[in-house]
Design a protein that fits this description.
Layout: H1 8-19, H2 24-36, E1 38-39, H3 41-46, H4 52-64, E2 68-71, E3 77-80, H5 83-108, E4 121-124, H6 126-138, E5 143-148, H7 155-166, E6 170-174, H8 178-187, E7 192-194, E8 205-211, E9 215-221, E10 235-241, H9 246-263
Parallel strand pairs: 5-6, 6-7
Antiparallel strand pairs: 1-3, 2-3, 4-10, 5-8, 8-9, 9-10
Helix pairs in contact: 1-2, 2-4, 6-7
Protein name: TrmB family transcriptional regulator
Domain Transcription regulator TrmB N-terminal: 17-82
Family: Belongs to the transcriptional regulator TrmB family.
Length: 264
């Protein structure tokens, strides 16, 4: 589209439509029609980088996805659906794709996944580490012990801890800033807070997690461009599982000492 470089919504819309599977011409045609409301192939071509003869191919692609309606006039006119309906169509389509993907992957997994993992596994990236933490919490049957800095305790993590508590899992959390602790007590009334024996601000530590005494994760905040440690963007974690896993043994001993220290 011949948009001004400052017209960020046009660029974002085209980029995201291509990301969800539309061809470049189809994405540009859709955005052009969204701008026009409705129009002919020539109208679309006039405000986009799509040749008029290729607009028809793009419209066919959009029509197949249920994104455009065609008025059989001379010349043909095209009408684009609303942004809300567009979002709903893509959500349904990708929800189905994800369901099919999960089903296919489940069929590829070993018949019996071993709970005992040799050595430790590495996870890189704050979002990926957060996902692993939530996965581990969701797998808990008896107990979750978790220590972290406040900025890493996201709403999704709190939701997973609350869900675990509601199904009877014991939740033990290291103390954090007072305002965060108040939020936690409100969200997870049954959670037990324990005093940390370390000053986290003096270390690059990110998270320490133990689930059911047999699955553990520890992370550190990596170097970044922030002015202070909590502004660092990167995070790296290692995790292990199984009663004889070396990381599990070390963190189990550490948490036992930590919790006992709070009870004396």
């Amino acid at each position: 589209m011949n948009e001004n470089p400052s017209d960020e919504p046009y660029k974002v819309a085209i980029s995201q439509l291509e990301a969800v599977g539309l061809s470049a011409y189809a994405a540009r045609t859709f955005v052009a029609l969204a701008t026009l409301g409705e129009g002919t192939a020539q109208d679309v071509s006039d405000i986009s980088e799509v040749p008029r003869t290729r607009v028809y191919d793009a419209v066919n692609e959009l029509e197949d996805r249920g994104l455009v309606d065609v008025h059989q006039s001379t010349p043909k006119r095209f009408w684009v659906i609303s942004s809300e309906t567009t979002g709903r169509i893509f959500e349904q389509e990708y929800s189905q794709r994800v369901s099919e993907l999960v089903a296919a992957l489940d069929s590829l997994e070993p018949v019996a996944r071993s709970d005992e993992q040799r050595g430790v596994w590495t996870v890189t990236g704050r979002k990926t580490v957060a996902t692993r933490v939530i996965d581990f919490i969701e797998s808990a049957d008896e107990e979750v012990v978790y220590m972290t800095v406040g900025d890493l305790l996201t709403g999704d993590t709190i939701d997973s801890l609350r869900a675990a508590s509601e199904r009877g899992v014991s939740i033990k959390l290291g103390t954090m800033e007072q305002t965060i602790q108040e939020d936690i007590r409100e969200a997870i009334p049954e959670a037990e807070m324990f005093e940390s024996l370390w000053v986290w601000s003096d270390t690059p530590a990110g998270r320490l997690l133990m689930v059911d005494n047999e699955k553990t994760l520890v992370s550190v905040l990596a170097d970044g461009t922030g002015d202070n440690q909590l502004e660092r963007e990167d995070e790296t974690a290692i995790w292990g599982s199984g009663g004889t896993n070396s990381l599990v043994i070390v963190l189990k001993a550490m948490f036992t000492w930590q919790l006992n220290g709070n009870r004396t």
